[in-house]
Amino acid sequence: MAPRSDSQRVTVIGAGVIGLSIAVELADAGHDVTVVADTDTMQTVSAVAAAVWFPYRSERSPMADELLRSSFARFSRLSTDPAAGVEMRAGTVVERIPSTDRSWAADVPGAVEADPRLLPAGASSGIRATLPLVVIPAYLPWLRAQALSRGVAFERRTVTRLGELVGGADTVVIAGGIRGGELLGGDADVFPVRGQVVHVANPGLTDWIIDNDDPAGVTYVFPRRDDVVIGGTSIDGSWDLRVDVDTELAILERAAALVPAIAGQPVVGRAVGLRPARPTIRLERVTQHELPVIAAYGHGGAGVTLSWGTAERVRAMLDDEG
Ligand SMILES: Cc1cc2nc3c(=O)[nH]c(=O)nc-3n(C[C@H](O)[C@H](O)[C@H](O)COP(=O)(O)OP(=O)(O)OC[C@H]3O[C@@H](n4cnc5c(N)ncnc54)[C@H](O)[C@@H]3O)c2cc1C
User: Fold this and answer.
1) What is d(CA 169, CA 7) in angstroms, rounded to the nearest whole number?
2) In this structure, which residue's CA is closest to atom 51 in ligand 1?
3) Which of 131, 218, 232, 287 has the smallest CB count inside 10 Å?
4) FAD dependent oxidoreductase domain: which residues (predicted)?
5) Ligand 1 contacts CB of residue 278 (under 6 A)
6) What is the 8-class DSSP label of residue 51?
């Protein structure tokens, strides 16, 4: 895009899915973007994500619904580019509690009531839907390459205080995930929700299944290309990043009960990540700092799901007030 007269120098702190999406979006809008991060993208929480478009453990509100919608539309478009690693895949969301929120399905084309005969024992209902499934090992490198091809610069370091960036940036966007509040004087509302996953070889599955209210523990099976991501756990307040062997065995057992083809498949990977949870996503201008700041963190278990909507909001904030 041609340089614009009101182009800003923007430093984005964070190279997870939120920071990278924002960087691409702002570069597309003609801004001069630098991403500063102290973790390689493939070592972030984003690299642990399963990752299907679904509003798990994140704010539900009209604003969040808008982020969901715009991200869905963007991922749908990206699914036509095989290099991006986004695939539209059919699957089932199992419901065990009659009051389960199913408002997310309102904007999903073709979402229908699941055939009760195909649901696991104990399910009260379910939804069949075709959703974006983001193959993270392909998608995150692709996203970073998209940023680089738009002229985004990358720096690998820790930002210890915002004052360091004065003179080099007109606006700072904080996309620091679980650490998002640290540079803003702390944020007591952010907390980790520990998630553990195991990857097994893909026996030829394409359909995904989510059974979040399985009484034995949250269970999901997301076939990617060569492997299948199986989860999981959802432990509020736990900072423990170690893979727990007993937890892994229990996850495999629950998943095999749900999808028998999983049984006996070789384990090819395992991971633990801390979802950056917050009662509300922090997506706003923050004043009274050394330079203009936009906060963009606290996406819980839906950072991939909400990423493009978040990036579009940040772009609008810069354009409206830049
Ligand atoms: C097991 C599991 C399964 C999940 N499944 C899904 C799913 O199916 N769908 C979905 O949408 N989401 C899913 N999620 C949630 C998703 O992974 C997160 O919401 C998302 O990754 C958050 O992205 P982020 O960019 O905000 O943070 P992160 O990926 O954590 O990135 C934070 C970045 O900020 C940088 N940083 C922070 N502070 C500083 C600083 N001071 N200086 C320099 N750099 C800094 C870090 O280095 C890093 O680059 C899952 C999460 C887990 C753990």
Assistant:
1) 11
2) 49
3) 287
4) 9-314
5) no
6) -
